[in-house]
Please model this.
Amino acid sequence: MKITYDFGHGTGQDRGASGYRNEEHDCREYGALVIKKLQALGHTCYNCTPPASPALALGQSLAYRVNKANSIGSQLHICMHVNAFETDKATGCEVEYASASGQTYASKVSAEISAALGLTNRGPKNQPGLYVLKYTKMTAILVEPFFCDNKNDCSKYNAERLATAIVKGITGIDTSVKPKVIPKPAAQIAPKYDESMPSGSNIFNIPNIHGYIEETTDGRLTIHKDRGNYVAIGKGFSDLYWNDNNGNGGHKRICG
Ligand SMILES: [Zn+2]
Model:
């Protein structure tokens, strides 16, 4: 999809709100992540934010965004902002729209933000008079994910989670950064064995030594450190057996 976007304010007389957090900073921070994720999903995105310089009057700043989006002819335009009202008086996320198709996006995006950040869902809000929503020719939404003058809202701000939620609302795709899967240690290969010294008529327990010699039923002579570690001497061959009783072990013909 061809997507245009603009980050709110940031030039001349068009200034963002400021409270516990700063709108111009935050909408550029989470907004950049939104665009990165949309691009990773294969969407073509065009920035319609006016540069900070030259300084523009409010009307010029808004017209710049609309004109650029209309000239590109995108299918969707996303305005990224942060809300403000009076200190600690308003809370939650909302997404503004001015068309039926905008309402569908607005509803999904607001619900995703609410779920991801644990914010009150103020939901989609019909704002047909908002300049950018009114004059852009394509479907457009204006994201107001939280109130920068509400302390509790600000404590929930997380740019990555917010961006993931917005992208999920728009595309239906979860782009959250997955924690790396730590591979499980390999299953134990060598079996555990009993570490006690055996006894029997075929076993010679070496005096004062932790070890023994055994004649096996198949006629081999085995010299043991313990039941798991030994050399087996047969007629014309010798085998070595080792086992650390911690999953690691094996055997190898050493001659013959
Ligand atoms: Zn704003």
About this structure: Residues 8-9, 16, 23, 81 surround zinc ion (CB under 6 Å).
